[in-house]
User: What shape does this take?
Amino acid sequence: MSETLRLRLQAFLPPAIAMLLFILAWEVGCIVFNVDEFVLPRPSVAFASYLKWQTAIWPNALQTLMTTVVGFGIAIVLGVALGAIIGYSALMYRALYPLLIAFNSVPKAALVPVFVIWFGIGTVPAVLIAFLISFFPIAVNVATGIATVEPELRDVLRSLGASQFDIFRKVGFPRSAPYFFASLKVAITLAFVGSVIAELGASNNGIGNMMVIASSRFEVPLVFAGLMVVAVMGIALYAVFAVLERRLAAWAYRSRGV
Amino acid sequence: MPTPCVELRHVSLHYHSDGKPVHALEDVSLTVEQGEFVSIAGPSGCGKTTILKLVSGLMPATRGQVLIDGQVVSGPQKRVGMAFQNPSLLPWRSALGNVLLPLEVVQPHRAQFNTQRKAYEEEARRLLHIVGLDGFADKPPYQLSGGMQQRVALCRALIHQPEILLLDEPFAALDAFTREELWGVLQELWTARRCTVIMVTHDLREAVFLSNHVYVMSKRPGTIVHQQIIDLPRPRTLADTFEPRFVEYVRQIYDKIGEVRQ
Ligand SMILES: Nc1ncnc2c1ncn2[C@@H]1O[C@H](COP(=O)(O)OP(=O)(O)O)[C@@H](O)[C@H]1O
Ligand SMILES: [Mg+2]
Assistant: This one.
């Protein structure tokens, strides 16, 4: 019992200390170098601003969260589907991979004005950007997981007369689960970035929109309060998927002895 | 005369990789009677694994025919159980889960798997007990030694009661002690089940110990160059392997391989 507690602390303490030191250095640095609040507010000032504007921040944060989750959900469904297709079929892989790379190379921020033209200002562009930005790592990881299934494992199933679907269910899917969950951790933070970027210019609410309004009123501490909220939500979402990964793809960690 | 259980008629096989064909098997003919234990011995790369893949229906012959009970094999057969050269266990399943796998795929077990799960698990545990894996049923593969994993693979090949058991160098990766211990286990399983076994090996003592009939293959392109009926009483023990008759069989086959090489 105390052993597990010790392990938990070992996992938790280093990042917590690093984070505290970072905030401390920021605070002290601003004081020592006498940095103008208008340029870079101290964390304590940003936090004070957060407390002051809490009631305004949270509805926006929740809006951003919802946008992110919807876009991310679509990315999971389509990412897994496309990943499975290109993972299974070498032909589809060759045909679609360059296209996928091309799409991924387009800066997503550059698509915001396009989506505004198509869908107007609002939630839709943000959802789409969150989807587009998080779709790629999911598809690529699922494809990798499936394409790298050991031929021997597939033969075990094939020799029993298993159908392609059986093979996917019993081998392909569980085999790619660690890749899938690893990609979710990355993709959720990307989706978050995507929705905030879209909100900066193409939304009437959300934390991104709030930051634009704050900066236009020269409320720099509020801008930073918004940034902090974004960062904290990013960490929280990452943690959720990291825990999911540990739970649902535990075998991959265990067999690596981690 | 009964129809032979497994028959290869003038089978040839070419692999096509990187454009140039690899001629793996050339005109291989052999017959295996119902309930026989047959070994195929030969140097590495001579096409032994290829023969098993043909019999299991994992791939078709380039020329010639593979028949099971007089029927041409055109795809995987549920009557066949196969243990591969590597244990190839699913790393996310326990030993027990791995043994149960064929029952989740092969009919009629598949249809009753959920309702009969208890009975199936019992059967799987019984097999694990026979191969000496009591207490390891719930362990994941990475916690088992190579020999233990190979035993699990053997149980997996047997769980759905196949009529034909195909074994691809099942003990090649093991140390001598474990290997010879598992010869005994396999002999016991075969005596109890009386299924037809085709085992591939490059170990002549292993072949003589376990088989009724040993086929010897040449280097690639592999073809049968010698066959030997092993007329020794069963059950055979490790002590028997030092008996003159046993040693004589091994030497005969060994000499034959030497002749073929020249
Ligand atoms: N998938 C494949 N593609 C191309 N060549 C192969 C393939 N599988 C096996 N071979 C070649 O066929 C020959 C026979 O292989 P195999 O049956 O695995 O030999 P063995 O099991 O006797 O060691 C080898 O020379 C090997 O290199
Ligand atoms: Mg082989």
